Amino acid sequence: MQTIQANNYQVFFNENGYTYLNAILDVKSYSKIFIIADENTSNYCLPRLLSLLATEIEIEIIELEAGEEHKNIETCLQVWHSLTELGGDRKSIVLNLGGGVITDIGGFIACTFKRGIDFINIPTTLLAMVDASIGGKNGVDLGNLKNQIGIIREPKAVIIDTQFLETLPGEQMRSGFAEMLKHGLIFDKNYWNKLKNISNLNTDDLDTLIYQSIEIKNNIVSQDLTENGIRKALNFGHTLGHAIESYFLENDEKKSLLHGEAIAVGMILESYISKEKALISSEEYHEIKYVLSDIYDAVSFNEKDIENCINLLIYDKKNEFGNVQFALLDKIGNCKINESSTNELIYSAFSDYKS
């Protein structure tokens, strides 16, 4: 597959990625290589990466605990101390080997250590490949609030190695697939039509579909790196989805949801709001609801859950002057940003979801 050109970096695929990686390590003469991984990618992905690195530069492995609950400033402090104790300097480079948590927090750590050192994202999950590693967003959660602290700074490169997907359980693949479905809904109806017939897809299709998803996200981000306009479209399903994800993460009585599981619910709810605002037809809404409900298990909400999720909306990053803003569908394949909704309409969306 051809390399994708982003604003200030490139996205490389499979063997081309390692050719680039070894070349830049040679040319830039880095003082030290730090690989940030979690306990899962250390076991399942790190051996492959190390076997493909052709360099004499000293390599240090920094292993983090896996999970969204560790994507916080406390983890950053630990890693900053480790980088310092292991001799990291401004000529060091960080390789982020992992899913969205690792690429988010690893990028943030690199951007802030010594006022910024180079980093390369090597995503190992479908979610990270099509979403988290692309576009320059780096950051951590503030308590249970998603991605409240961060910086937009692009990596030196992103390397997509789809062999890593062979290590993933099915629920992690479905989590990433939600972002691909979102790309079709907001940007490309033909792409949505390909994805919605998931039973007809095979592994040979996956590389091509991943490539198309990255192209869509890169197309949007390249027009609006700092999210002042069209990039907000990528938040479709995320205004309510992030609130749901945060609420389930902090509530000991609830089983935490994977990101894509929460976003799938968010997309159904926000599609309902789109329908009620006459942006999409009833037929389009029911198609979206049917497709997503067929792929993702239903999530149970009681009245208290719904109230708490709605209360969390005030912390959404897109809000301006205290107003909650949504990215809503404007027919399948298009999106409208900076849309509002009443709490009554949100409650109705939850009610319809439960029906």
Automatic annotation (TrEMBL):
Residues 62-174 form the 3-dehydroquinate synthase N-terminal domain. Gene3D superfamilies: 3.40.50.1970, Dehydroquinate synthase-like - alpha domain. GO terms for molecular function: 3-dehydroquinate synthase activity. InterPro entries: Dehydroquinate_synthase (IPR050071), DHQ_synth_AroB (IPR016037), DHQ_synth_fam (IPR030963), DHQS/DOIS_N (IPR030960), DHQS_C (IPR056179). PANTHER family: 3-DEHYDROQUINATE SYNTHASE (PTHR43622). NCBIfam families: aroB. Catalyzes the conversion of 3-deoxy-D-arabino-heptulosonate 7-phosphate (DAHP) to dehydroquinate (DHQ). This is 3-dehydroquinate synthase. The gene is aroB.
